[in-house]
Structure formats: C-alpha cells, structure tokens
Amino acid sequence: MVTFRIFYLFVAFMAVTTAAVSADYTIGAKDSLDIIVYDNPDLSGSFSVSETGAINFSLIGELKVVGKTARQIENLIKDKLIAGKYLKSPQVRVSVGQFKSQSVAVLGQVSAPGKFVMEGGSTVLDMLAQAGGLTEQAGDRILLVKRGSGRGEKTLTVDMRDINFGDFSKNYAVGGGDVLIIPKNDSFYIYGEVRSPGLYRLERNMTVMQALSVGGGLTNKGTQKGLVISRRDSKGRVTESKVKLQDSIQSNDVIYVKESIF
Fold it and tell me: I need a surface site. Which of 87, 125, 130, 152 has the fewest CB within 10 A?
C-alpha cells in the first residue's frame, strides 16, 4: 500500500514539474514541439525546430519559434490563424516534446558519466537514469549546479535518502547547461579484533558503537576498552586518539580494536 502511495505521489509531482519546466523554457534549434489545435487534428502534430529556428506549420507556413516560450508560441499561432481567417477562435496548446538543443552534464559516481539530452520536463532522477544509475560508491547527497536560469550559478543539494523514502520535493527539474555532481560516499576503515575488518560506508551521525556493529562485532579476543581512531587533519597530519563508544566518527577514520589482555 505504501509503495503504491509513493508511486502516485511521484507521478503527480512529475506532472507538475513538467508543466512548470515547459512554461519557462525558451525554445532552441533541434527541439521538438507538440502542438494541438483543438477540433482540428489536421493542424496538430509534432514539429521539429530547424537549424534556423523555425517550424513549418500548416496554413501559416514558416514560424520563427527560437527564443520563445510555449505560451508565446501558442499566442503566435492563434494570432496567425485568426489574421489569416482560417479559424475564428482557435484553441491551441503547445508543449515541448524533446529538449534536443539543451543538455545536462552528469559527473561522478554514475555508471556512464557524460552529457545527456533533456527530454520533456527532465528531472534529477531522469538524468541519473540516462547516466546508467548510481554506482555503489555514490554518496547520499548529490549536487545540482544550476547554470541555465540566467540568474547566475546556483547549487542545490539533492538528498537521495529523502527521495528513497518517498519525498520527491528535491527531485528538481533540470535545465540546459545544468551539471549534476555525484560525489563518492564517505567511508571508514576498521581493523583489529573485529569479525569482519575492512572498508565500510560511513552513514550520517555514525558512532563508534555503530561502526563496531557494521564490522561484525568484536571477536572473542576483542575489547571495547582502549579503542583508537587514526584521523587525518586539515594539514594532512595523522593523529591517534582514544575514543568512546558514543563518539562520532568521520570520513576516512581508521578504527583499531585492541586485543583484551585478560
């Protein structure tokens, strides 16, 4: 039941997002437009924008559309149809089918990093899917650098944990020129008298006790007393310090579990 609820929430969110993107987006060469003239199927269809920034529309001929929004093109077509006395009161709907003039770069921990063409109403999740999805080394927080808004560069943080739990409010719409950066996850290393020593993913607000649990717990010889963390400071120097079970650990910490002397 919860799964279906999340699915319907996602569908509703995507519909709103797509409408918002199409309303603000300015058309570029190679984009495609879906145009509907209600009650006139012969005038409706999908139209590709030429290199010169125009489409060929029945009855009207060549229309320059580059640099215009979908709403502006709707009004342009209405005015032309009325001025030519083809229709008295046409109802026109224009939406962007493919954003081929615009691309988004997806970098970092994805299966196939690169630049990808936007589709209608593309979002962060859409672009991640085009890039083959996240790798196992991907962190929870993704950076979205907005470059195509005309208002300067702006960086947004996308929390994938929230999205995984059904909160799609951070599944932002992307625009041409945007960059998605997927950093590598933080990790720590634990060794000594633990059952499964090795390198592990660092979760948020993780404590020494939780790290011990991830490492399989203590061996029969292990002790919680005298736990030592090796940590590198901002100048690259490595320091060692004793820690308690409730202490927090940081990225790249190395935890050593000593052998009990008894």
Answer: 152
| Cα 26 from Cα 67, distance rounded (Å) | 5
CATH number at residue 131: 3.10.560.10
Q: Which residue intervals of 65-217 are DSSP H helices? A: 70-83, 124-130, 160-164, 208-214
Q: Which residue has the tokens 């799964």?
A: 3
Q: Is pTM beyond 0.85 here? A: no
Task: Kindly state the tokens that stand for 118.
Answer: 């936007």
Q: Cβ of 130: how many Cβ atoms within 10 Å?
A: 19
The stretch 123-150 carries a mean pLDDT of: 89
Q: Of 72, 97, 122, which residue is a domain's last?
A: 97
CA dist., res. 69 & res. 44, Å (int): 18
What SS3 class is residue 137? coil
Both 134 and 64 in one domain: the answer is no
262 falls within a domain: no
User: What's the pLDDT tens digit per position in 39-71?
Assistant: 999 999 999 999 999 999 999 999 999 989 999
- The beta-strand segments (E) located in 38-186 are 45-48, 54-57, 61-64, 92-108, 114-119, 141-146, 154-159, 179-182
Q: Residues 177, 191: one domain?
A: no
Domain count, the chain: 3
Among 88, 70, 66, 68, CA closest to 79: 88
Q: Alpha carbon of 104 to those of 66, 120, 162, 175: distances in Å?
A: 19, 13, 23, 7
Same domain, 175 and 158: yes
